[in-house]
């Protein structure tokens, strides 16, 4: 939880492995993020946390292979996972990344480095290309047609709720088990430790029980999925 | 009980419905204050000892609230208030309008909860029984008059009479399984006409959700303030950019009932409703929780749906 003094507080994910320093990648979308964007280098902000449950690193390490599916601003939290995977001995991974336009693609400079990793296959797409775009066009789920989904793969997806909904649908069609689909939900959060109730989703509090869930855990909740 | 001293307390009034919870889960509460220049932060944890008058249903609700708010890490403000507050449970000698506490496992009378138990004698005057040391110390400090001999027996009779003739309709409370069996179309039907105003939340003795704001005092001084929030409001889950996981009113309506009658029972082993009936009394659209619960229990027993994959 980051506080901009005099403005408010909002929850964010790490976009790097968090040590003494960490990075967070923040899109200007509301009051707090707008204020964060206006801050000058050296400004002080408030930090509380970390809260909640992280990606299941041990499980992923022992998986047969990993498919990482990112949508738009969903890439930053997955970038911390990618960094961790690269720094440790993880199974092969396929990274699928979609954004609205080429201009919306984040961490573009990292793509070449990621693709060079012998254990990594990476595909990128945009919903709408521009004059200079020579890559894939279409929503992120279309990338599944261009890869061979390994057996017993674990899928990790982060992105807008509607995008994750279709990724989950596609994965189920491809035979991925609900317990092997890992999503990170976003919700309004106020306290971060299970008191305020703002992040209630079915029987869960996203701040405490999540934000990382398996699809198996949330499939019966009549919310966005 | 004759061996335990009893007292008389005067000039007390049980707060109206919408003020009840405000005695211990505040409508508006300062969490901390800070100066944006010095970044000095002051936490507001100062709570004075005070007498809090609640009903037997509220006392049961409080046991649930404790489970949530005192679970580590505890809510600091609530924890202190629970330690400082003297909770006096005022017995009901007859059923209130709309109340259905007997159906939710409660009673018109207190069941040993709180620090003091009060029984109404006449207008603003109560017979006081001491239940805890904290209650005892408070009574000593007030220097209350001891109840005259023989009044205890009279009060016992009044209580017995109240229990003997509660004049309260008994309804069937749906089980978690029955709630789960209700299809979304049914919820859409039930929720239709709901204004989504949040009064059911505000009046509910088990609702504790809150929102926070950073409120400006002057150029450099701000306070982090929390206010009651309501899960039936669209803003409850609304994120920057207009995103939400709970996109429509019937889903939010359903979540409220699921939380009280499915999730809380399964997670904490108690009902999330104490049958106070205030959500009906204060609902501007006249949604009668008793009718809704009876309907849900009936429908939930009828409809046996297989576990559906999400659409």
Task: Characterize the structure shown.
Chain A has a single domain (57-218), classed as 3-Layer(aba) Sandwich (Rossmann fold), CATH 3.40.50.80. Helix content of chain A is 25%, strand content 20%. Chain A is built from seven helices and twelve strands. In chain A, strands 7-6-5-4-8-9-12 form a seven-stranded mixed sheet, with helices on both faces. In chain A, strands 2-1-3 form a three-stranded antiparallel sheet. In chain A, strands 10-11 form a two-stranded antiparallel sheet. In chain A, strand 8 (154-158), helix 5 and strand 9 (181-184) form a beta-alpha-beta unit. The mean pLDDT of chain A is 95. Chain B is α+β, with helices and mostly antiparallel strands. Chain B has two domains: 6-164, no CATH class; 176-302, no CATH class. Chain B contains eleven helices and ten strands. Chain B has a six-stranded mixed sheet, with helices on both faces. In chain B, strands 3-2-10-9 form a four-stranded antiparallel sheet, with no helix packed on it. In chain B, helix 7 (184-191) crosses helix 9. Chain B is flat. The mean pLDDT of chain B is 94. Classes of the chains: A alpha/beta (225), B alpha+beta (311). The A-B interface holds A 3, 5-10, 29-33, 44, 160-161, 172, 185-188, 190-191, 193-203, 219-220, 222-225 and B 34, 36, 39, 68-69, 71, 73, 75, 180, 184, 208-214, 216, 222, 224, 226, 229, 231, 236-241, 243-247, 251, 254-255, 258-259, 262-263, 266-267, 307-310.
Would you spell out the secondary-structure blueprint of this structure?
The complex is a heterodimer of chains A (225) and B (311).
Chain A: E1 2-4, E2 8-10, H1 31-38, E3 46-47, H2 57-61, E4 66-71, H3 75-87, E5 93-99, H4 108-116, E6 120-126, E7 136-137, E8 154-158, H5 161-173, E9 181-184, E10 200-201, E11 204-205, H6 206-209, E12 212-214, H7 215-218
Parallel strand pairs in A: 4-5, 4-8, 5-6, 6-7, 8-9
Antiparallel strand pairs in A: 1-2, 1-3, 9-12, 10-11
Chain B: E1 6-9, H1 17-20, E2 28-35, E3 41-43, E4 50-54, H2 56-69, H3 76-84, E5 85-90, E6 116-122, E7 125-130, H4 133-142, E8 145-146, H5 151-164, H6 176-181, H7 184-191, H8 199-203, E9 210-216, E10 221-228, H9 249-268, H10 278-281, H11 289-302
């Amino acid at each position: 939880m980051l506080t901009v003094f005099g403005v408010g507080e909002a929850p964010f994910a790490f976009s790097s492995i968090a040590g003494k320093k960490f990075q967070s990648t923040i899109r200007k979308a509301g009051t707090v993020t707008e204020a964060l964007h206006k801050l000058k280098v050296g400004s002080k902000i408030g930090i509380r946390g970390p809260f909640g449950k992280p990606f299941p690193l041990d499980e992923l390490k022992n998986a047969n292979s990993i498919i990482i599916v990112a949508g738009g601003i969903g890439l930053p939290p997955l970038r911390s996972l990618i960094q961790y995977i690269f720094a440790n001995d993880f199974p092969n991974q396929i990274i699928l990344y979609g954004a609205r336009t080429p201009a919306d693609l984040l961490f573009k400079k990292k793509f070449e480095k990621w693709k060079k990793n012998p254990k990594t296959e990476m595909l990128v797409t945009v919903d709408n290309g521009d004059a200079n775009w020579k890559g894939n066009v279409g929503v992120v789920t279309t990338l599944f047609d261009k890869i061979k989904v390994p057996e017993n793969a674990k899928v990790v997806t982060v992105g807008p709720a509607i995008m994750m909904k279709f990724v989950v649908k596609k994965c189920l069609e491809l035979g991925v088990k609900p317990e092997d689909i890992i999503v990170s939900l976003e919700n309004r959060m106020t306290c971060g430790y299970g008191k305020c109730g703002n992040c209630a989703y079915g029987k869960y509090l996203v701040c405490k029980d999540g934000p990382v869930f398996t699809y198996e855990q949330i499939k019966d909740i009549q919310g966005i999925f | 009980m004759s061996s335990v001293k009893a007292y008389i307390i005067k000039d007390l009034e049980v707060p109206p419905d919408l003020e009840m919870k405000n005695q211990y889960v505040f409508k508006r509460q300062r969490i901390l204050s800070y100066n944006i220049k010095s970044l000095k932060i002051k936490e507001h944890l100062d709570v004075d000892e005070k007498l809090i008058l609640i009903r037997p249903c509220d006392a049961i609700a409080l046991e649930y609230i404790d489970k949530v708010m005192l679970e580590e890490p505890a809510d600091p403000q609530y924890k202190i208030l629970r330690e400082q507050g003297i909770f006096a449970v005022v017995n009901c000698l007859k059923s209130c309008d709309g109340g259905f506490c007997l159906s939710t496992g409660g009673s018109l009378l207190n069941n040993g909860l709180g620090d003091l138990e009060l029984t109404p004698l006449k207008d603003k005057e109560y017979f006081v029984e001491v239940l805890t040391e904290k209650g005892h110390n408070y009574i000593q400090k007030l220097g209350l008059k001891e109840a005259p001999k023989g009044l205890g027996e009279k009060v016992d009779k009044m209580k017995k009479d109240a229990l003997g003739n509660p004049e309260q309709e008994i309804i069937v409370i749906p089980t978690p399984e029955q709630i789960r069996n209700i299809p979304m179309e049914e919820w859409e039907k039930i929720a239709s006409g709901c204004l989504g105003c949040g009064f059911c939340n505000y009046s509910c003795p088990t609702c504790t959700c809150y929102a926070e704001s950073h409120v400006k005092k002057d150029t450099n001084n701000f306070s982090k303030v929390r206010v009651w929030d309501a899960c039936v409001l669209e803003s409850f889950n609304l994120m920057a950019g207009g995103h939400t996981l709970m996109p429509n009113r019937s889903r939010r309506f359903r979540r409220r009932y699921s939380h009280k009658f499915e999730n809380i029972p399964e997670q904490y082993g108690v009902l999330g409703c104490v049958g106070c009936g205030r959500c009906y009394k204060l609902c501007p659209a006249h949604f009668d929780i008793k009718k809704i619960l009876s309907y849900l229990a009936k429908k939930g027993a009828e409809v046996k749906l297989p576990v559906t994959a999400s659409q």
